[in-house]
Automatic annotation (TrEMBL):
It comes from the Eukaryota. This is DUF3700 domain-containing protein. InterPro entries: DUF3700, Ntn_hydrolases_N, TSJT1-like. Residues 1-105 form the DUF3700 domain. It comes from Musa balbisiana.
């Protein structure tokens, strides 16, 4: 999944097993998917110190990988997590994932 909003670009692959509780925590609608949640959580923490935006990673649970690029701060956040360890790895490799994000940023900027 890919989404872009307010100069934040995110490419997400996988599933968050705690998506419902995270939607509630961040005040998002029931229709918000994983990529929207990651972007909104990042943005909320970026804009409200004292926590760094990467702090939200501790709250995410599931089998997922994502690359988030914030054009306004020229920063990138990359995460890849598998819970529980018995789950198969995500179908997309990180180099392929990064290439797709680069292409998406080039298209949308």
């Amino acid at each position: 999944m890919f989404a872009a909003k307010d100069e934040i670009y995110c490419l997400f692959e996988g599933v968050l097993t705690n998506l419902g509780s995270l939607r509630q925590q961040y005040g998002l609608s029931k229709s918000a998917n994983e990529v929207v949640l990651v972007m909104e959580a990042y943005k909320a923490l970026r804009d409200r110190a004292p926590y760094p935006p990467s702090f939200m990673l501790a709250h995410l649970s599931g089998n997922f990988a994502f690359v988030l690029f914030d054009k306004s701060t020229s920063s990138i956040l990359v995460a890849s997590v598998r819970h529980p360890p018995s789950l198969p790895p995500a179908s997309m490799s990180i180099p392929c994932f990064l290439h797709l994000l680069y292409v998406a940023i080039a298209i949308y900027s």
